[in-house]
Amino acid sequence: MTKKLTKAAAAKAATRNPEAGEDAAPMSNRATRAAERRDAIVAAAMEEFIARGFAATRLDDIAKRAGVAKGTIYLHFKDKESMFEELVRTVIVPVVVKLSALPPPTSSVRDLIETFAGNFLKEVIGTRRGDLVRLIVAEGPRFPAVADFYYREVVSRGIAGMRALIELGIARGEIHQANLARYPQIVIAPAMIAVIWQSLFARHAPLDAQDMLRVHLDLIFGERRTT
Amino acid sequence: MTKKLTKAAAAKAATRNPEAGEDAAPMSNRATRAAERRDAIVAAAMEEFIARGFAATRLDDIAKRAGVAKGTIYLHFKDKESMFEELVRTVIVPVVVKLSALPPPTSSVRDLIETFAGNFLKEVIGTRRGDLVRLIVAEGPRFPAVADFYYREVVSRGIAGMRALIELGIARGEIHQANLARYPQIVIAPAMIAVIWQSLFARHAPLDAQDMLRVHLDLIFGERRTT
DNA sequence: TGACTATGACTGACTAGTCAGTCATAAATG
DNA sequence: CATTTATGACTGACTAGTCAGTCATAGTCA
Predict the structure, then answer these.
(1) Confidence band of B27 (pLDDT split at 50, 70, 90)
(2) Taking residues A93-114, what's their average pLDDT?
(3) Based on the domain organization, do B150 and B199 belong to the same domain?
(4) Which of B146, B170, B219 should one mutate to test binding to chain A, selecting the residue with the greatest count of A CBs within 10 A?
(5) Among residues B53, B78, B103, which one ends one of the domains?
(6) Same structural domain for residues B58 and B94?
(7) Residue A13 CA to D28 C1' — how many Å?
(8) What's the pLDDT at B206?
(9) A47: containing domain
């Protein structure tokens, strides 16, 4: 029983790091193909979970979409629930890494935040990742493990990072409202709303997220005079 | 087949309007009890759906919680799906009505919005209604009927109303950023984030929604000097 | 008013179908 | 050939929806 879980974890580890000993050696064919299959399953599972939610998603459908037999899924994941949890980790982590890479802090705080917003726009809003965020909001209460992970890895870091930027902005005189540092959520809120809007209401009323975020930054920093 | 649906609708109508002819006449015991049962089912269903999501909710559990046999549910609702849809309507409509009642427009735009935010805080944020909003975000994509209804009755009205207020604020010189009227979402966003935050992260990091909304209004209107 | 009948709200055991997870077998690999 | 990996038919638990039967209440009549 526990053996299988261990094996799944090992397979996952192999995906990113083919055995500590051989270091940079190329992965064996087997490991490569196993990793490819795992990725296919993760991709298929993401599509299905996003489209139907956790409970209504059938493993048969995931298997079919991934071009794999159902049993194969159980070679990589303990069960449906932990597949969902690992899926979230697998997809979220690279995004966080990407978005955490801030540009040189030589520019103005506004430019820093604007760059971040641009990346967020490109990497999340209106993409499958955005749908995944909506899915986390949807399933979070039923998956404390997911909600905890998301809070720890994404939300708390995002809030902390944004707070640091706001404080820098205040110190430099770019931001005039000191209280803003107490609620970084206010700065992030429109971006989150854009994510949800695209998932739910885009077909009723399309939203120009980029333009909206610019207006929001104008509100925080004051309107741009010259570039 | 269609008869049953009609009957359910009739029972529902009877809840609020006991037969057009007799006007103010008291409802018969039967109709009263039927209405009470329907309400009990709606309340039970809301709890269960919020806790488990649509797909994972068992009608047996709803019945048990409502103190009713499973068959009774089908006297009031066509099936699980339309029960969910009617539930959303039943719960949302009164809230919209309540929140639509604006105070006399003699006060400043800031006061108008602040009053609205206060009501929203009391009626939605941190309540079962707030959880329901999260549920709509969660299930919306799988229930176009629900998403459409919510967009039509809540979102589009809210956006339009807020836009009117913003334009008034601009005209009166209370709001300086004219572009804000193009994205009323920006004004509403923190309130929505507060709703979601309470559902998902309150136990990780409690959020003083009221204070946050005040800070946000300070950002839009400039900080308060005197009252 | 009291007795008798008609109504339809309510019940819950039951059916038919679904789907997560298993495992005996087969294929691939080295 | 031995071992690892993959398959998909199968099982058993679970649940949406049904329906024949019950019974409290409304209606009728003497």
Answers:
(1) low
(2) 88
(3) yes
(4) B219
(5) B78
(6) no
(7) 81
(8) 97
(9) 2-78
